[in-house]
Amino acid sequence: MQQASETEVLVVPASREDGGRLRRITTAGAIYDRLYADIVSLRMPPGMLLQEKRIADDFGVSRTPVREALLRLSEGGLVDIYPQSGTVVSRVPVSAIPEAVVVRKALEGATVDAAALTATTADIARLDAIIARQRAHAATGNASGFHEEDEAFHEAITQISGYPGIWAILKTVKVQIDRARRLTLPVLGRMDNVVQEHMIIRDALAAHDAAAARSAMIHHLSAVIPDVDELRARYPHYFC
């Protein structure tokens, strides 16, 4: 396969919530995005060995952009690099979860406050469309699709609030929560509960009731804390 330039800029579709606009990304960035998504979704589970050569071959590039992507993932706590030994997907650090929830409550409490004051009819319709897609995924048991729409819901609120940059901060803060939550979504009734919690937030925003919106968001984010002890018992090799 012909190798792409290590500094090549690729043009790829952005997320639906960004309007599907095209964005430019380096080869290393594209590799990072793919590995990040696979690790967070648990398609690459904790403890999995990552082989630079195989990844490079998959993308048709040299090992240089692969190493750059792996270094970024290491800085984000998603892979562990062992010199002379190899690189593995990191285990989920239990100690990082409570602090991440505290940060998330503070930031999303602020954005939902602001969104309650500024939400338009079009904004509420946008949330309704996301919730409708979540219901459809819950009905079919599509945990991956459901999680994608869950992300879209919370990102939309930061955009409605006028503070879209907060979402970039939150994505970094909550990455270990997201990995743990992927193990809880298949639990019977969990996705339906999330939809109901989102509806309560949506209704408070539609009513421009900032206090109710904040209260509903804080309750919702408290519920995202997985039962770590139970998860560790069921998946002992996934946590540290």
TrEMBL record:
Keywords: DNA-binding, Plasmid, Transcription, Transcription regulation. Residues 25-92 form the HTH gntR-type domain. SUPFAM superfamilies: GntR ligand-binding domain-like, Winged helix' DNA-binding domain. The keyword Transcription regulation applies. It comes from the Bacteria. SMART domains: FCD, HTH_GNTR. InterPro entries: GntR_C (IPR011711), TF_FadR/GntR_C (IPR008920), Tscrpt_reg_HTH_GntR (IPR000524), WH-like_DNA-bd_sf (IPR036388), WH_DNA-bd_sf (IPR036390). One of its GO terms (molecular function) is DNA-binding transcription factor activity. This is GntR family transcriptional regulator. It comes from Rhizobium johnstonii (strain DSM 114642 / LMG 32736 / 3841) (Rhizobium leguminosarum bv. viciae).
